[in-house]
TrEMBL record:
NAD(+) binds at G200, G201, G202, V203, V204, G205, V206, E207, G289. FAD binds at K70, G133, T163, G164, S165, D329. Belongs to the class-I pyridine nucleotide-disulfide oxidoreductase family. The lineage of its organism: Bacteria, Bacillati, Actinomycetota, Actinomycetes, Kitasatosporales. This is Oxidoreductase. Its cofactor is FAD. The keyword DNA damage does not apply. Disulfide bonds join C61-C66. It comes from Streptomyces fulvorobeus.
Length: 493
């Protein structure tokens, strides 16, 4: 396999480089968690690999998403859990130490510096280019550095677009002038606003509402639909809404923002609502969806539409192309770090196999070259109080997909382990059973401490473990996982 080419592979990221033309086996655009993992796989296979990054190596996940948000949520959820344990609750009655929580978050976001991850990427022998990567033709990529230098790269085998996604702001009057928060500001803010409006009730909305309410803001959520977490089973949103309301947040459903204004730069922000009312706060967060970072990527030079999500097959290769891959958020299959990294392992293996001329068995659904879990077994944990976790299909999605199914529900409060975990435990579990195959299509847990339980469900769903065999997976007593036994007993009647 080819390795070194025209330049020194150990070039430092701070070095000022001149215009160059260089050839690599693989060019990766975007060094978020997904781009890093594609490069890790292709380097491990001996393929020379260039990685282009326009901001920070580590991507959204490391600096403005998973890492800072979970660092902010952990003390909030731990305190809520501790407050439900007899003998401990009195010790945690006080407020959170805001400065310490924010400092913990800063540490987890590596103080928005990427030396560690850059060092790792260099350590695996990938060649880092700092700048904006753009496709310029078949297997051709340009890199424009901040200093204006341009590099022209050729990929012998594959270009992997791993440019991720960005927050979408609604097209409403006054939005840009009001300087709203997106997920970036919500995860990196240095001060707690006195009042915060959160527009949107998806995962980012509920997690950030949980954080800032617990840190002392008065949070008002404006939800267009009927409830929170609309992609999950309805009881997930209901239980999370109950807890947020008990924590002091105000949740207004069935209401949409129509305009936003902030009269003075340091003044409050006011939202006009479609019911004729208005709402005032010090900051407003729009948690209203994501868009692909493909608008300035040169997609038009390879016959694709700029600004579009990239449609890929199960090896993450763009449909109709022999050399272009799109991995992670940018392909819109599952906007989650762990799923993007899974796709990166698949794409890395597929690129390597094709570079070696090995035939890929597209029909091999258990193989290492097909991201089949994206269709059937995507796990997700919402790190709120209570946690909400799901894998696979909801009842509604399973019915809409035409499966003959039965939903089996169980009250988590009736499991021995939950009472020990927390007094007055509230939670619920559901498994969606495929009645024709007697396997699970989906599982949802909502309750304190259930996040770590999810992988058992992921194994059951991804492995298509027959119900008869699950019966022999005995949960330890007295843990919350005993809910498995109760769900199976309920199913068998
Ligand atoms: C608030 C929040 C919390 C989240 N929490 C979780 C969580 O707990 N667990 C979870 O699994 N997922 C979570 N996610 C989702 C997760 O952040 C994404 O799924 C993940 O970051 C996607 O990784 P990626 O590598 O595809 O894209 P990104 O992380 O977005 O990385 C893409 C990289 O490409 C670079 N780039 C873009 N265009 C170019 C270009 N033209 N040239 C060079 N570089 C370019 C960007 O600068 C960026 O560094 C969260 C998301 C948000 C917003």
């Amino acid at each position: 396999m080819a390795v070194a080419h025209t330049r020194d592979q150990t070039v430092r990221m701070t070095e000022v480089v001149e215009n160059t033309e260089t050839e690599y086996d693989v060019v990766v655009i975007g060094a978020g968690p997904v781009g890093e993992n594609v490069a890790e796989r292709t380097r491990a296979a001996g393929l020379s690999t260039a990685v282009i990054e326009s901001e920070l190596i580590g991507g959204e996940c490391s600096y403005w998403a998973c890492m800072p948000s979970k660092a902010l949520l952990r003390p909030v959820v731990a305190r809520a859990d501790a407050r439900r344990v007899p003998g401990l609750s009195a010790a945690v009655e006080g407020p959170l130490d805001t400065d310490a929580v924010l400092a913990h978050r800063d540490t987890y976001a590596s103080h928005w510096k990427d030396d560690g991850q850059a060092g790792w990427l260099e350590g695996i022998g990938a060649h880092i280019y700092r700048g904006v990567g753009r496709l310029t033709g078949t297997r051709q990529v340009s890199v424009t550095t901040r200093e204006g230098t341009e590099h022209r790269l050729t990929a012998r085998h594959a270009v992997a677009v791993c440019t991720g996604s960005r927050a979408v702001l609604p097209d409403l009057p006054g939005v840009p002038e009001a300087r709203p928060w997106t997920s970036r500001e919500a995860t990196s803010a240095k001060e707690v606003p006195r009042r915060l409006i959160v527009v949107g009730g998806g995962v980012v909305g509920v997690e950030m509402a949980t954080v800032w309410q617990a840190l002392g803001a008065q949070v008002t959520m404006l939800i267009r639909g009927k409830g929170l977490l609309p992609a999950m089973e309805p009881f997930a949103g209901e239980l999370v809404a109950d807890a947020l309301t008990e924590a002091g947040a105000v949740i207004r459903t069935g209401v949409s923002a129509t305009a936003v204004r902030r009269a003075a730069p340091d003044g409050p922000v006011t939202v006009e609502l479609d019911d004729g009312g208005q709402q005032e706060a010090d900051e407003i967060l729009f948690a209203t969806g994501r868009a692909p970072r493909t608008d300035d990527l040169g997609l038009d030079t390879v016959g694709l539409r700029p600004g579009s999500w990239l449609d890929v097959d199960d090896s993450c290769r763009v449909r109709g192309s022999t050399w272009l891959y799109a991995v992670g958020d940018v392909n819109h299959r599952a906007l989650l770090t762990h799923q993007g990294k899974y796709q990166a392992r698949i794409a890395g293996a597929a690129i390597t196999a094709r570079a070696q001329g090995a035939p890929l068995l597209e029909s091999d659904r258990w193989g290492a070259h097909a991201a089949t879990a994206d269709h059937a077994a995507v796990p997700q944990v919402v790190f709120t109080d209570p946690e909400a976790a799901s894998v696979g299909l909801t009842l509604r999605a399973a019915e809409e997909a035409g499966h003959r199914v039965r939903a089996v529900d169980y009250d988590l409060a009736s499991v021995a382990g939950s009472g020990l975990y927390a007094q007055d435990y509230r939670g619920r579990a559901r498994m969606v059973v495929d009645l024709d195959r007697e396997i699970l299509l989906g599982v949802t847990f909502v309750g304190p401490g259930i996040g770590e339980l999810l992988h058992s469900a992921t194994i059951a769903v991804a492995g298509e473990v027959p119900i008869d065999r699950l019966w022999h997976a005995v949960p330890a007593y007295p843990t919350i996982s005993e809910v498995w036994l109760r769900l199976l007993e309920t199913y068998r009647g």
